[in-house]
Amino acid sequence: MTLGHFPTRWKAATIVPILKPGKDPTDTTSYRPISLLPSLNKIAEHLILKRLNSYLKENNVLCPEQFGFREKLSTSHQLIRVVDYVTEGFANKRKTGAVFLVIQKAFDRVWQDGIIHKLIHYKTPSYLIKLIDSYLLERKFAVSVKNELSSTKNINAGVAQGSKIGPTLFALYINDIPKLFNTLLCMYADDIAILARNKNSNYIQIALNRHLKALEDWFIKWKIEINV
Questions:
Q1: At what angle do helices 126-136 and 39-58 cross, to 10 degrees?
Q2: Where is the Reverse transcriptase domain positioned along the sequence (predicted)?
């Protein structure tokens, strides 16, 4: 592991498409691709993740607005945070406005070079950066449908859904998402909400639009697309 090399044979995934609840089975976008990875890959990922999480926790790297992929945090905790914000506003006769966004194909389209940039930015130990870079490079996959296996293809973007380390790498990738002083940012995995409150509805609209503009610029910079 200290050599910074992740064996190539451990990076071949079998993709099983899982139909999302209530979606059209004839539409390819209705399926969530789940990666089945070799057992040795999962063991190695567990070791990498343990060391990465230890570094992130010791250095307080991950932003407190992200409640996904975090120990002892859930959607309920984030919801309580939102409800408290709105309730406090009502108590002070303030209206609350909100905008909800979802990152499109979050795990599949993460810019891999961007992940390495973020790891460097957060001063991650060099051996971990080399190891994660090796882990991401030259990954391959084949799709399994009804016991039929497709030809092997290269993976040039994203982190594998179903992997142990993928969620943490994704959380780190969006960790520096813009935050503004007059709005509340809430995140759970790839779901984003921004809220603003004031007695004046125009102020709320201005605050939300200002935050949306900051997000738009950041999304473009880091090659992130949003579902509309």
A1: 140
A2: 1-228
- CA 8 – CA 200 distance, rounded (Å): 58
- Quote the distance between the C-alpha of residue 18 and its chain's center: 19
pLDDT tens, residue by residue, 168-212: 999 999 999 999 999 999 999 999 999 999 999 999 999 999 999
Strands 139-145 and 148-149, sheet pairing: antiparallel
Q: Binning pLDDT at 50, 70 and 90, where does residue 1 land? A: low
> Which distant-in-sequence residues (6+ apart) come within 8 Å of 219 by Cβ?
225, 226
- Taking the C-alpha atoms of residue 169 and residue 49, their distance in angstroms, rounded to an integer, is 9
Which residue from 122, 10, 103, 115 is spatially nearest to 56, judged by alpha carbons?
Answer: 122
pTM of the model: 0.85
E strand spans, the chain? 12-19, 31-36, 95-103, 139-145, 148-149, 153-155, 184-188, 191-198, 226-227
Choices 3.90.1850.10, 3.40.980.10, 3.30.1140.32, 3.40.50.720: CATH for 8-227: 3.90.1850.10
Q: In this structure, which long-range contacts are made by residues 78-86, counting pairs with CB atoms below 8 Å and at least 24 apart in sequence?
A: 78/186, 78/187, 78/188, 81/184, 81/186, 82/184, 82/186, 82/193, 82/195, 85/184, 85/195, 85/197, 86/195, 86/197
Kindly state the average pLDDT of the residues 81-87.
97
Quick check: 126 pLDDT over 90? yes
Q: Is 106 helix (H, G, I), strand (E, B) or coil?
A: coil
